[in-house]
Amino acid sequence: MPNYKAELIGVFGHPVNENPTVAVQEAAFKALGLNWRYLTVEVLPENLEDAMRGVRAFGMRGINLTIPHKIAVMKYLDSIADDAKVIGAVNTVVNREGKLHGENTDGKGFITSLTQEGKTSIPGKRIVILGAGGAARAIAVELALRGAGEITIVNRGRERGQDLTRTIAAHSATRASYVAWNGILKIPESTDILINATSIGLFPNIDEKPLIDYDTIRSAMVVCDVIPNPPRTPFLKEAEKRGATAIDGLGMLVNQGAIGFTLWTGRDAPVEVMREALAKEFRAV
Ligand code: NDP
Question: Is the peptide bond before 45 cis (omega within 30 degrees of 0)?
Fold first, then answer.
């Protein structure tokens, strides 16, 4: 008997038209021969509640949330993963037989990149994070929950920076401190991992880089950027010049999508297919 019914997932955002995730997830469905579709849907903030009812009504298998819905969606869910609760945001919802469960895969995607590409472990490591926005929160919380020794949050805005250090201290044994970013930052020599989790360098501002003294980067450091496009940012190029191991944001984005794919389908994600699909989209921009 034929089965014409497709399983549905997608993303709700505003704006959403430049979100490339559809190409990544649909490449993965195709690779595994799954009759699933990924819908890219513009949802205004005032319509999010109805849109989440739509997820239930259509029996959608799940949904991604992007700007501005990652926090607001939490009140429409039946359960939320512990780490996503600490982060305070959900970017992936899984429909478990009518019950909507929230996860945050941003930080986990980062951790996969860091440990696999950076070939580094996390327990005890001394980490400096530039930024205290949504990406920085997800990354910092996942690193702290995995036993990072020390996390220094460097941010322009004091309130967001201090709030993140309080979150880390309240939920882990990681030493957390805040440094105000109001000049050229020197990276402490003892740093193992340096992460740019700001939006500096994002397309189209591709020549911008964080204000730091790049000569304080040492070759033993692992240096990561969350910017997925272009993946080789000026920040990472400076780090590479000093012999550091450089990890780009494209891997983070691919890996968070791969985690979502597995949460929805229960199948191992074809990560290389997904990476190539995303790189192709970015080359086309
Ligand atoms: P937010 O707007 O929540 O946070 C932005 C952060 O960048 C804040 O800490 C802000 O500091 C800082 N910042 C911005 N401009 C400057 C500047 N000129 N100088 C110093 N600090 C600055 O954004 P998100 O955290 O959601 O996203 C950050 C980046 O992460 C984006 O570029 C996004 O594309 C990327 N990202 C990548 C993902 C991936 O999978 N690769 C996943 C999610 C996000 P302040 O608080 O002082 O304003």
Answer: no
3 state DSSP class of 120: coil
The pLDDT assigned to 227 comes to: 94
Q: Is the CB of 252 under 6 A from ligand 1?
A: yes
Question: Are 10 and 38 within 8 A, CB to CB?
Answer: yes
Cα-to-centroid distance, 211 and ligand 1 (Å): 14
Ligand 1 near 201 CB (within 6 A) = no
Alpha carbons 66 and 212: distance in angstroms, whole number: 29
Q: 98 CA to middle of ligand 1, Å? A: 34
Sheet holding 36-42, edge to edge: 36-42, 7-13, 62-65, 92-96, 99-103, 79-80
Q: Are 114 and 247 in contact (CB under 8 A)?
A: yes
pLDDT in tens, 116-140: 999 999 999 999 999 999 999 999 9
- Our answer on whether the CB atom of 228 is closer than 6 Å to any ligand 1 atom is yes
Residues written for the chain: 285
Whether this prediction's pTM lies above 0.85 is answered by yes
199 lines ligand 1 (CB under 6 A): yes
Domains of the chain: 7-104+251-284 (3.40.50.10860), 107-247 (3.40.50.720)
94-128 CB burial, b ≥16 within 10 A, e <16 = bbeeeebbbbbbbbbbbbbbbeebbeeebeebbbb
C-alpha 131 – ligand 1 centre gap (Å): 6
